[in-house]
Design a protein that fits this description.
299 residues; four-stranded antiparallel β-sheet; alpha+beta; Umud Fragment, subunit A; eight-stranded antiparallel β-sheet
Length: 299
C-alpha cells in the first residue's frame, strides 16, 4: 500500500489540488523504493473547473490545427479547401447570382447587362402593358386640329375599351378613336391610322348638312361645340345598321364621315373618357349639348 511521505507533502498536495493543478509526489512502496505518481484534481468546489480547462484546451488545439492547415496550403501555393454545404441553405461554395447571369457581348454597356431575373421582369411588364392596352384602356395624343377647340394639337387623353364591349353601343356625343373604313376616298395606308372624332348620329338616324349646320332627324346638333359654321353641304342620308356617323368639331378642317361615309362599329377602338395632358386641361370632356333620351339598343 502506498503512503505519502510527510505532512508537508500533504499540505502541498492539498494546496495544489485546490488550484486544479497536476501534483507529482513520491510514494514509498515496499522496500524503500520510490515511484513517481501524479494526481489530477477533478473538482474545485463542485464547479467542474478542470473539465472546463480540458474543453478550452481542446478548442484551442482545433483552432491551431486549422491555422496550421491554412498556412501549409498558402506556403505550398495551393488554394485553401472550400467549405461545402449540406443542401439545407448552408453555403456550398456556389454563388447563386452566377446562375442568373447571361453572357452578354463585349459591346453591351455594363449598365445594360441584365441577368435572367431582370429580363423576366421586363418581359412580364411588357406583356401586361400590351394586354392592358388591348383590352382595357390606352393613351392617345391629338395630332391635328380636327377636334379643336375641345382638343388641341398635343393634347393627350385616355381611351377606355370596356363600355362598348360589355355595356352599350356608342351614343351621340361620344368621342371615339377608330380606324377609317376602306372606301374610294380612303387609301389602304390611311385605314391603318387611328382617327379621333365625335359620334353625331347612330344607326337609323337621318343626317344632313345645310346652311352651315348639322341636322340629325331634322334637328340641329352640336352647334355649341363646333368651331365655326360648316362651309359645305351634305345631302340627307340614313345611317345603316351596324354603323355610326362621325364628324370633327372643327367642321371645316376634318376628314370624317361627310367625306368617306358612315363608320362601321367594328372599326372603333375605344371611347375617350378624359384628358391628362397638359395638366391645366386634366379632367373629363365637355358634355354634348344635345341630350340623348336613352341609351339605344345594340344595333
Amino acid at each position: 500500500m502506498a503512503t505519502l511521505g510527510s505532512p508537508l507533502q500533504l499540505i502541498t498536495l492539498s494546496r495544489l489540488n485546490a488550484r486544479g493543478a497536476t501534483v507529482r509526489f513520491t510514494a514509498k512502496v515496499g522496500h524503500g523504493s520510490s515511484v513517481r505518481s501524479s494526481i489530477t484534481s477533478a473538482k474545485l468546489g463542485g464547479n467542474g473547473f478542470a473539465a472546463d480547462r480540458r474543453i478550452a484546451w481542446s478548442r484551442r488545439s482545433s483552432t491551431l490545427h486549422r491555422a496550421r492547415h491554412t498556412k501549409v496550403h498558402a506556403s505550398s501555393g495551393d488554394p485553401p479547401a472550400e467549405e461545402t454545404g449540406d443542401g439545407n441553405g448552408n453555403n456550398n461554395g456556389d454563388d447563386p447570382d452566377d446562375d442568373m447571369d447571361l453572357d452578354w457581348p463585349e459591346w453591351v454597356p455594363e449598365g445594360l447587362r441584365l441577368n435572367k431575373e431582370d429580363v423576366a421582369t421586363v418581359l412580364i411588364t411588357f406583356a401586361v402593358s400590351l394586354a392592358f392596352r388591348a383590352t382595357i384602356a390606352e393613351p392617345r395624343f391629338i395630332p391635328s386640329l380636327s377636334m379643336y377647340p375641345v382638343f388641341d394639337v398635343g393634347d393627350r387623353l385616355i381611351a377606355e375599351k370596356i363600355t362598348y364591349k360589355f355595356k352599350h353601343d356608342p351614343v351621340p356625343g361620344d368621342v371615339i378613336i377608330f380606324h377609317p373604313p376602306k372606301t374610294p376616298k380612303t387609301s389602304t395606308a390611311l385605314t391603318k391610322e387611328v382617327f379621333i372624332k365625335r359620334v353625331v348620329a347612330v344607326a337609323g338616324d337621318t343626317v344632313e348638312v345645310k346652311k352651315g349646320e348639322l341636322y340629325v332627324n331634322g334637328k340641329g346638333r352640336g352647334a355649341e361645340l363646333k368651331l365655326e359654321p360648316a362651309t359645305y353641304t351634305m345631302e340627307s342620308q340614313i345611317v345603316p345598321i351596324g354603323d355610326v356617323f362621325v364628324m370633327g368639331d372643327n367642321r371645316n378642317n376634318s376628314f370624317d364621315s361627310h367625306v368617306w361615309g358612315p363608320l362601321p362599329k367594328k372599326n372603333i377602338l375605344g371611347r375617350a373618357c378624359f384628358k391628362y395632358w397638359p395638366p391645366q386641361k386634366f379632367g373629363g370632356l365637355p358634355q354634348y349639348p344635345s341630350t340623348v333620351d336613352k341609351v339605344p339598343e345594340r344595333y
